[in-house]
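Consider the record:
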Amino acid sequence: MSEPTTGTTAPANLTFRPVGPNDAVLIGRLVGEAFERDTEARLVGALRISDDLVLELIASDGANILGHVVFSRATIADGDADLAIAILAPLSVRPDMQKHGIGTALVREALERLKRENIDIVVVVGDPAYFTRFGFSPGLGEKFDTPWSGPNFLAMELSEGSSDRLPATLTFAKPLTAGE
């Protein structure tokens, strides 16, 4: 999903929190509406039960879930197996709240949390125009061999020097590769 910069900012009362036990239905609905199909909502559910989640975060205005992002574990099939790598997928914002900075704020918050959790590198398949604003790079993405290699495969170093330990071949959580 793309959320171009429009000059609007996220709501002042925007807060972030981990997903709670009663959030699944609302998140499923939000993700389905954001993508206008249920494929990504099913993916989120499958990732939850796969035990490969690294971080699942909600953006809320206190009463409503406005955005949601998931990061799952990627493992090194060939390369430095000690690197901790997460993939961002999917990122969803409620359709009537898109282009208000919620996705941007949610990704920034999530990246800070991942840094504190000692994740070395985050990868994403997405629009370079959107994700480069956070520091994701197609050049760093080229150092990985994945099923999604190409110009929309981007990577971002969270721990300094971790990109010096590349190249690497990545394996993703099964729910992410089920449709290959």
